[in-house]
């Protein structure tokens, strides 16, 4: 009987640890998307750079196809389909680390069936940072490349 009680206590403690681990670290600002962690965990492990600490991370391969296309255009230096692509991102929401004006640049990620630019963006930093948002700057995920 005593062993049964011990097993129940251990199972309860294990469940509590699993719940804490699954709900930990919202990273990436006010509300991070837990599905991003699940998508990232299916890809090969990539070490997390210092600039990405505190953010939900996603691998480039786990991003939507349109975001991967935008990254290819950024790597190639364009041409970009939207006039505002490459413009300064002001970080007015203060979700990304604070930097001097002009540090961040933003690029549109095409959203199928949207008539305008939609809500999805890639934001890059001068230090090699890549961030993805699909909710128009409310939250960001650090893109590991």
Explain how this protein is built.
The chain is α+β, with helices and mostly antiparallel strands. Helix content is 29%, strand content 17%. It contains 3 helices and 6 strands. Strands 1-6-5-4-3-2 form a 6-stranded mixed β-sheet. Strand 5 and strand 6 form a beta hairpin. The chain is globular and about 35 Å long. The N and C termini lie far apart (54 Å). Mean pLDDT is 79; it is low at 1-7 and 9-42. Residues 29-49 are annotated as: Disordered. Residues 31-49 have a biased composition (Low complexity). Keywords: Hydrolase, Nuclease, Signal. Residues 1-28 form the signal peptide.
Throw out a few tags for this protein:
single chain; 145 residues; alpha+beta; 6-stranded mixed β-sheet; 3 helices; 17% strand; disordered N terminus; N1-like
Give the arrangement of secondary structure elements.
Blueprint (H helix, E strand, L loop, with lengths): L1 H22 L10 H8 L14 E4 L5 H12 L10 E3 L14 E5 L12 E5 L4 E4 L7 E4 L1
Parallel strand pairs: 1-6
Antiparallel strand pairs: 2-3, 3-4, 4-5, 5-6
Protein name: Guanine-specific ribonuclease N1 and T1
Keywords: Hydrolase, Nuclease, Signal
Pfam family, one: Ribonuclease
